[in-house]
Design a protein that fits this description.
The structure holds two protein chains of two kinds. By secondary structure, chain A is mainly alpha-helical. Chain A contains eleven helices and no strands. Chain A has one domain (about 30-270). The chains are: A mainly alpha, B alpha/beta.
């Protein structure tokens, strides 16, 4: 008979690597829809850049912020693409794991803890976002939309931005008993306005004063501004750049804390 | 008796004002096959979740393999196999992949999970479906896959929550056969069921649970001896006549239960009592003499049927 001490010692291995086993599962699941991930990762930037680089940019020959329009808008396109994927991943896949496929309950019947489930979920998404953002970045280089070598820093910024919206939504989705239109509302009243009013296609300063708060509250604006700084060297006070970073980290960490709590509550009730 | 693998003392689980489990106590010995029998909503699944270290108890003492599920959840779960009431197989993975990924959660190496998965596919008679998706499998196959998955870590104890609910008779018998083999190999089985035949087939010892509390405890034979008679005579006169006929035959048998569709007469000799009733001029539409079952025990203890 195995002693209690031996059992606890054996469980240590899973305690260390549990998050990776969950990520491994998610990566294996992704094989089922890898063609969608790859196709959308290539098609999205291509469509955006063709439409804006060849289309809209011609209407604004003077550019914005001292750079061609394509260079101005490129960081915003990368950020909005990855943040949108982040928002999607924080909703249905989370609720599905509890309600429809119940896979989180299956995982939790093993030594894996709720924290490791959340951790593995986020690690898998880091890998996925890195791929999608990397492909997007490659297209930006091809189209000459990123003038500086430091532009690659946009990739980790976009991943942080994705988590800043994903974790609060994940916390919400993990507490939801059923989707009776909440996710559609979030798409229309949160994600879409964020895309439209976060200084994506024009500087936030051009937005009417009474709408400017949307940008300040939006992770997309903060991620985009940081992206513009590292991409073409947009100038802004250092305190503002620090604020952008702090807001994104704050959303991601606070959201992550509540997401973990929501998972733990639902899995142990 | 060796140290119990489960020791529950007065465990309680409350959800706000609702008391799902109301102070139940029992021990389970190593290698024993232990059943929690009761109707839906009796608190069986909640008890099972507390044992499985996935639901924290409100009060009472609970030890599983010498550890406290509230504080040593991962260590306890590393030694358990769990078959939940509802299948939660990964629909996005193939049959064999379900076993492989699950085994990894126990820290098993890639080589070890591959070997174990093939052995268990054989055990669950699913080798030819290894590469199939989960969705097209029949209900019985899904249950067998869930049981195979629960055995990936070679558990000390297997927890089965309503293992055959929703399956056709043939699928149930195949599943019982697999579980019986595990029992023969010495695996501790803890199962919940509201099927008396399942409890009788698989359990050495049973607790009858109702409304979150234990009503009786013992082996199936002991419970039947204690709470029922050797035989049961079932007679039917039509739903509008059962009540009136019962008054004229009230002295027949040891005890009677008048149900909406039939009268149950508990007796040590059903055929003799049927002859007596017929002699009195009460010819039933249909009659049946059978041996007592756990269903009768439950009816006696609670005044209600197990499957309602």
């Amino acid at each position: 008979m195995t002693s209690v001490a031996d059992i606890k010692a054996d469980a240590e291995n899973t305690r260390r690597w549990g998050w990776w086993y969950v990520a491994e599962l998610r990566l294996r699941e992704m094989r089922g829809y890898v063609s969608y991930v790859v196709t959308s990762s290539f098609a999205n930037p291509l469509m955006y850049l063709l439409a804006l680089g060849i289309g809209l940019a011609n209407l604004i020959p003077e550019g914005i912020d001292g750079v061609p329009f394509l260079v101005f808008v490129a960081p915003a396109l990368l950020m909005s693409t990855i943040l949108t994927v982040g928002a999607e991943e924080g909703m249905y896949p989370v609720l599905s794991g509890f309600k429809w496929h119940k896979i989180f309950f299956a995982i939790h019947s093993t030594p894996i803890t709720p924290g490791q489930i959340v951790g593995g979920f986020l690690v898998h998404l880091t890998i996925r976002f890195t791929f999608t953002a990397g492909v997007f970045f490659g297209f930006l280089i091809l189209f000459g939309a990123v003038p500086f070598a430091s532009g690659w820093v946009m990739i980790p910024i976009s991943i942080l931005g994705a988590f800043s919206i994903l974790t609060p939504l994940g916390a919400f989705a993990a507490r939801l008993e059923d989707d009776t239109g909440q996710f559609a509302l979030i798409q229309r009243l949160v994600v879409m306005p964020m895309f439209l009013f976060s200084g994506t296609f024009f500087p936030l300063s051009r937005v009417p004063d009474w709408l400017e708060w949307v940008g300040w509250a939006s992770p997309l604006w903060h991620a985009t501004q940081l992206g513009r700084t590292v991409s073409y060297g947009a100038t802004e006070p250092i305190w503002l750049s620090v604020t952008h970073l702090a807001v994104l980290v704050g959303y991601a960490l606070i959201g992550g804390h509540f997401m973990h709590r929501a998972f733990a509550t639902r899995l142990t009730r | 008796m060796s140290t119990p693998v489960i020791r529950a003392e007065n465990i309680v689980k409350k959800y706000d004002d609702f008391v799902a489990v109301d102070g139940i106590s029992f021990d389970v010995a190593r290698g024993e096959s232990f059943g929690l029998l009761g109707p839906n909503g009796a608190g069986k699944s909640t008890t099972m979740k507390m044992i499985a270290a996935v639901s924290t108890r409100t009060s009472g003492n609970l030890e599983v393999l010498g550890m406290d599920p509230n504080t040593d959840g991962p260590a306890i779960r590393s030694q358990l196999g769990v078959v939940p009431q509802e299948d939660n197989l990964d629909q996005e993975l193939r049959v064999r992949e379900n076993l492989i990924t699950y085994g990894r959660f126990f820290g098993m190496s890639h080589a070890a999970v591959a070997k174990r998965a093939d052995e268990l596919l054989e055990f669950a008679q699913l080798t030819d479906r290894a590469k199939s998706k989960v969705e097209p499998l029949s209900g019985g196959m899904k249950r067998r896959l869930t049981i195979a998955r629960s055995l990936m870590n070679d558990p000390q104890m297997l927890l089965l929550d309503e293992p055959t609910t929703g399956l056709d008779p043939q699928a149930r018998h195949i599943l019982w056969d697999r579980l019986f083999r595990l029992k023969e190999q010495g695996t501790t089985l803890v199962l919940t069921t509201h099927y008396m035949d399942e409890a009788e087939q698989l359990s050495d010892r049973i607790v009858v649970v109702d409304k979150g509390a234990i009503m009786a405890e013992g082996s199936p034979a002991q419970l039947i001896r204690q709470y029922s008679s050797k035989e049961v005579l079932e007679v039917r006169y039509g739903s509008d006549k059962n009540e009136s006929v019962s008054k004229s035959i009230a002295d027949v048998g040891e005890r009677q239960e008048i149900l909406p569709d039939r009268i149950l007469i508990y007796s040590d000799n059903g055929e003799r009592d049927l002859a007596e009733i017929t002699k009195r001029g009460h010819h039933p539409t249909t009659s049946l003499v059978r041996r007592s079952s756990l269903e009768d025990v439950f009816l006696r203890l609670t005044g209600r049927s197990l499957v309602e």
